[in-house]
Amino acid sequence: MAEFRMPSLGADMEAGTLVEWLVKPGDKVKRGDIVAVVETQKGAIEIEIYDPGQIEEILVPPETKVPVGTPLARLQSEGEAAAPAQAAPAARAAAIAAVPEGPPPPAEQPVPPPITAGEATRGRASPAARRMAQMQGVDLAEIEGSGPAGAIVLADVEWALRGALAPAGQKRTPGLDPGAMRCAIAAAMARSKREIPHYYLQHEVDVTSCEEWLERANAVRTPSERLLMVALAIKSVALAARRFPAFNGFYQNGRYEPSAAVHTGVAIAIRGGGLAAPALRDADKLSPGELMPRLRDLVQRTRAGRLRSSEIGDPTITVSSLGERGVEALYGIIYPPQVALVGFGKVVRRPWVVDGAILPRWVVTITLAADHRVSDGHAGALFLAGIGRLLQEPEKL
Amino acid sequence: MNEDEIRKILQEELANIAPEADLQKLNPSADLREALDIDSIDFLNLVTAIHHRLGINVPELDYPRLFTLDGAVSYAASKLVGAK
Hints:
- Chain A is of the alpha+beta class.
- Chain A has three domains: 2-96, CATH 2.40.50.100; 119-165, Irregular (Dihydrolipoamide Transferase), CATH 4.10.320; 180-396, Chloramphenicol acetyltransferase-like domain (Chloramphenicol Acetyltransferase).
- Chain A is built from nine helices and 20 strands.
- In chain A, a hairpin with a 2-residue loop joins β4 (34-40) and β5 (43-48).
- The two termini of chain A are 44 Å apart.
- By secondary structure, chain B is mostly helical.
- Chain B has one domain (3-14, 27-83): Non-ribosomal Peptide Synthetase Peptidyl Carrier Protein, Chain A, CATH 1.10.1200.10.
- Chain B has four helices and no strands.
- Chain B has helices at residues 3-17, 32-35, 40-54, 69-83.
- The A-B interface holds A 169, 171-173, 215, 218-219, 222-224, 226, 228-230, 269, 271-272, 295-296, 299-300, 304, 323-325 and B 18-22, 24, 33-34, 36-37, 39-42, 44-45, 47-48, 50-52, 57-60.
C-alpha cells in the first residue's frame, strides 16, 4: 500500500491547494504520470506520481488546501491485493485536519454529469472541469484544453469563465497569479539574502567559437532543430557542476549535501513580471540538440503556468541568461536550498587581444553567485574558469 | 496566399507566443521583440511556426527581416511568390 502525498515543491512551500484530480479510483498509473494539479504560490503545478499502481481511494477533494506531506490518495502497488478497509481512517483524519480554504467541500462526491450523445467524440475533460462547466453552463466544446493530451482541466474552464467576464483587452494567463508569484519570489529571495552569505565572481569569456559553431550548425538545421547560445551555456554549467560538486546540491538543516545528479534550474522571465526557475533534469547527460526542445517546452509551459512537480522541486544549481536584449552582467541571488547561480549576460562584440592582435570577438560576461558556507572564492574561480574553458570547444558539449 | 492571409497567420502565431499581448494595439512597424517583450526562444518559435504553416525555412541571416510584423509579412509574401 502506498500513499500519494502533497509534495514539497520548494523549500518555502508549507501547504498547497489541491485544485483537481486527473485520475479517479481504479485508474492505473505509472511513474511520471500526471495525476493532480496543485496550486502553489508558483502557479498551478502538475503533480507527477512516483510509484506505479492503481488509485484506490482519493482522500482529499478538489479545492482543499493541505500541508505538505498530507496523504492525498491511497495507491495499491502493483501485484498487491486490495487493502482492508480499516486502513483508511488514519489517512482520512489527516486530510480532515488539514487547513480548509474557502467554503467546505461537499461531503460526497458529486455525481458527474451524464454523458450525452456526441460528448464522447469531443476531447477529454477532467471530472472537475465537467462539473464546473455544467454548473456554469459553459460548453466544453468551445474550450481549448491545456491538460495532458489536450484534456480540458478545471483551470481551462475557469479561464473561459473569466474571459467571458473580464473586460475586453484584459488578459491573464491561466494558472499564473502574478501577485502570488511575487510573494513566492519575495519569500525565497529574502530568505536567501538573510541566510546565505553570497560571494560573487565574474569572468569575461570569448565565445566566438560558440557563435561560429552555432551559425554553421543552424545553417543546415530546420527552425525546429536550431540551437541557441543558452543551450551551450546550460550544458557547460552542467558539465562543470558535475566536476565541482561544491556548487551542485542543497544546503539544508545546517549541512551541505552535494547532488550526484545535475538538474539545472533555468531562470525564465514571465512577461509582465515574475520569474520561475524550473529544472532541466539531467542536463549534464543531454546534448545541446537534446536540451533545446526540452528548454523550449519548459519555457512555454512556465509561461502558461503548467509546470510539473519534478521540475519545480529539485533544481540543483540555477542558470540565468539575460539573452540578446539584456545587459552585460547579472549578479544573481541563490535560490535556497541551492548553493550557486551562474549568470550569463548578453553576448557582445568587443575588441579582444588574440595572439597579440586586436580583433573583434564575441564576448560574454559569466558571473557566479555562490554560498560561502559551502565553498570559497578560490574554488568558485576554478568552477567559473572551467565553464569558460568548456565553451571554447562547443562541438564537444 | 495574399498578404492579408499571411498577416492573419502571423498574428495567430504571435498570439500563441505572447498570449497576454493585445495584438490589435501592435504597431505593425514596431520591433516585435521590444513591443511584445519576446526573447530569442520566442523568436525561434515564431520562425518555426512560419516554417510549419507557410513552408518557409527562414535562414538565420534573414531573421532581421522578421523583426517587425510588416517586415515579416512582406518577407513571407516574397518567398511564397518566388516559390511558385
